[in-house]
Amino acid sequence: MNNINRDYIFNLRDSNIIIPKLKPSTSHKDLNQTDLIHIIKSPSPLSQMHIKPDIIVGPTGPQGISGDRYSSKTIGKYIFDMKENSFISFNIEPGLAYINGNSVIVAEVPTKINSEINSFEGIVQYYNSQSGQIIIQDINNIKGTIEKIPSYYYVNLNAIPQSIISSDISSIQLVLNNNTINISEQDNDIQYYILNLKNNDEVKYIYTLLKNNQKASILIKLDIISNETMAIIYPIININTSYNSNIILNTNTPYAILKIHVIENLLFGDCIFYFKNI
Hints:
Elements: E1 11-13, E2 16-20, E3 36-41, E4 72-73, E5 88-91, E6 103-108, E7 119-127, E8 133-143, E9 153-157, H1 162-165, E10 171-174, E11 176-177, E12 180-183, E13 192-197, E14 202-203, E15 205-208, E16 215-222, E17 231-233, E18 240-241, E19 247-249, E20 255-263, E21 266-274
Parallel strand pairs: 10-13, 12-15, 13-16, 14-17, 18-21
Antiparallel strand pairs: 1-2, 2-3, 4-9, 5-8, 6-7, 6-9, 7-8, 11-12, 16-20, 17-19, 20-21
């Protein structure tokens, strides 16, 4: 048999190889449909062909250190009857990371699916990480109707108000000397102060270097030794006070908040005590 050199043309159509009849050809133009006799199916596309590697699971690593926690709920049920720019005190879970100046939102725990969302916002004035007592001041953005029945409330961090973003927040310990509170000049617009009173302490005067349009919020705490321990906050003689009666601190009312405002270079003071939660 004579050895004849033949040329073949293979066409790829729709992932299939088309084999023509065995006949001499010098150009693919010589082929027509009658010349096609067999179709070889192509394998699965390469994109569908892969090898799944073995997964080796190692031992579980040690548990990391717990981060700061803020989300909490009131320990008991409360009836909140607050107003704008007021303050409130209650107990939440101890061991949290709240500090003075944190912005928080307090929302009532719903009892029904369609319950109205009752909430308010404020600034943390004081938080005791051991007892869980928290004091929230500058109450604002009250939503819904805080019902006159005891309810549980969620407490969590809130977006930082724009007025605080540009100011550093610090807490300064004050000392009572000769019945006088001394407040130094403020470097920032917002600062918070704490004053601890002992038995028979009396607050009568305030000396301050606050600038015009600045304010100082002072948390006054009575260091309770016995049921007979008490302290007195008199109407401040050298400033314009909004209260005329003495503020008595004792085991039932161990806290007070004193606010000093400088408006048109005049000093104004407001002091309110509050009861101990039972």
